[in-house]
């Protein structure tokens, strides 16, 4: 269920998901609502969906290790109808973001480890991980 709030002129959305890959349908519903409400164009929609699909899939598979008892939390902030900030948090132990990206071998098509992170960091306008590595904030201009 998508919750919506307006605080001091800023719009906020929250979504709590079970750690199952099917939760991506709820993520798509959230993004569709944002696209409709804020007239986000198709190119930005595709970028947002790609990034969120990668991050939420990683949260389900790597962060929460497919434990359906664990949750994934998505918070969305709309800033001046010009920027959208997603914060995605899982209940896992986290990981070393810098280590994962530095060990990524893009030239090797058989090595899939870290590719989602590479995609997100290159598509999002900004990508910030917390120190533990179980929360990421991604920014997009809309």
What Rg is obtained from the alpha carbons, in whole angstroms? 15 Å
Structural class: alpha+beta
Largest sheet: 6 strands, antiparallel
Let me know the average pLDDT. Answer: 92
Looking at the structure, what is the overall shape? globular
CATH homology group:
Histidine kinase-like ATPase, C-terminal domain
Q: Roughly how much helix do the residues carry, as a percent range?
A: 25-40%
Topology order in helix (H) and strand (E) letters: EEHHEEHHEE
Provide the spatial order of strands within the biggest beta sheet.
1-2-3-4-6-5
Percentage of residues in strands: 25-35%
C-alpha termini separation: 24 Å
Number of strands: 6
Unreliable spans are: none
Number of self-contained structural domains: 1
CATH classification class: Alpha Beta
Output the CATH topology. Heat Shock Protein 90
At CATH level 2, the architecture is 2-Layer Sandwich
Number of helices: 4
């Amino acid at each position: 269920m998508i919750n919506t709030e307006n605080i001091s002129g800023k719009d906020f959305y929250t979504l709590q998901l079970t750690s199952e890959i099917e939760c991506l349908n709820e993520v798509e519903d959230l993004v569709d609502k944002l696209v409709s409400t804020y007239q986000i164009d198709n190119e930005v929609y595709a970028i947002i969906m790609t990034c969120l699909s990668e991050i939420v899939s990683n949260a389900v598979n790597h962060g929460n290790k497919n434990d359906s008892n664990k949750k994934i939390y998505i918070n969305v902030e709309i800033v001046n109808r010009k920027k959208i900030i997603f914060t995605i948090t899982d209940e896992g132990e986290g990981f070393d973001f810098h280590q994962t990206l530095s060990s990524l071998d893009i030239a090797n098509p058989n090595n899939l480890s870290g590719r989602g992170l590479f995609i997100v960091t290159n598509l999002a306008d900004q990508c910030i991980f917390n120190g533990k590595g179980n929360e990421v904030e991604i920014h997009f201009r809309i």
